[in-house]
Each structure stands twice: as C-alpha cells, then as structure tokens.
Amino acid sequence: LYIEQISIHYLVEVPKLKNTNFQANTTDALKQETWRSQRISRLIIDYLLRSGYFETAQKLAEQANVEDMCNKTVFMIAKQVEDSLSRHETDRCLEWIADNRSKLRRLKSTLETMVRLQDCIELVRRGERLEAVHYARKFLANLPKEQWSEQVVKVMGLIGFGIPSKSRAYTEYFSEKRWDQLIELFKHENARVYKVSDLKRFHSKT
C-alpha cells in the first residue's frame, strides 16, 4: 500500500512539476524573445531618428511598444544642432553644451573649446580681430591645461596677427571642412552624453 501511495504521488506530482518547469521555461523564453525584439526595434528606431526619419521612427516605436525606451527628443534636438552647424551657426550648439555642461566635463569633452575656437576663426575671417580678442578672453582664458593644444595656440596666433597671406599652415582653419568636423564631433559627444546606439552596428565589416 505504501508503495502504491508513492507511485500515485509520483504519477500526480511529477507531471505537475514538469508542467511548472515547462511553463517557467516558456515564460523565460517569451521574455527573452520580447527583450530581443524590443532591442532590435530600438536599434532600428535610433538609426531612423539619427537619420532624421522621425515619423517613421514614431510609427515603429508605437508598433513595437517601445515609445518610452526611445530617444526621440534627444535626436530631434541633435538634428536642430547639426542643421544649425551646417549653416555655420553655433548658438544652438552652445545652448546644448550649456544644458549638458556637467556631463561634458565628466567626459572631458573638447566640444565647447572647438566651438569657441570656430567662433574666433569666423570673427577673424570677417576682420573683427578686436572682437575675437574679447571673445577669447571671455571664453578661452580659463581653459584647462590638457586642452591647450597646438590648434588653440594657432588660433590665438590668428587673433593676434591676422590671416597670414602666404601661409599654408593656417589655410585649414578657414576651410569649410572644419564645420563638417564640428558636426561629427557634436554627434560623437551627443552619443556619449546620452549613451545612444552606435550606427556602426548597422554597417557590415569590410
């Protein structure tokens, strides 16, 4: 009788246990699959947002139920900054820097220095060297030692002596490419500040 009771108990309880384990494993698997799906959706949405496809990104976020996890506002602001820099305007970028100054300091970012230098260069380009002197004194006088690069020294030279007539060493400072470099630097720092996804994940290795 005792053996029969054990057998009956085994026949009843073991299937329950197996069923419980199966349900637990199934639940874990579903959670894992949901996480993976949402992760992929977020990467795609970040890519779309960074590329400026805000409406498409919004629709995908709604469908994937990840609206709260996306960085739409971050990328919309970033797009505004990038557009302003492409128009050779620095005000919007400086506003962004002011809003994120504490984080940028922790990251030891050089973005503000580069933007301030560009403002100085544009003043020199327009022949407003005295204004450039005042600007540099106000915003660049207290630069930390590690940011006193050769580039900073050369821009100070431009402010002090003007544009050398036959110097190739200074030609690059008046190149349009500097604005492109500034945009790329901003993108990099924006990604670091907000820890957004890296677009390189979407490009195959060559």
Automatic annotation (TrEMBL):
It holds the Pfam family CTLH. One of its GO terms (molecular function) is ubiquitin-protein transferase activity. It is found in: Nucleus matrix. Keywords: Erythrocyte maturation. SMART domains: CTLH, LisH. GO terms for cellular component: cytoplasm; GID complex; nuclear matrix. GO terms for biological process: erythrocyte maturation; proteasome-mediated ubiquitin-dependent protein catabolic process. Residues 74-131 form the CTLH domain. Transmembrane segments: none annotated. InterPro entries: CTLH/CRA, CTLH_C, Fyv10_fam, LisH. PANTHER family: E3 UBIQUITIN-PROTEIN TRANSFERASE MAEA, MACROPHAGE ERYTHROBLAST ATTACHER-RELATED. This is E3 ubiquitin-protein transferase MAEA. The lineage of its organism: Eukaryota, Metazoa, Ecdysozoa, Nematoda, Chromadorea.
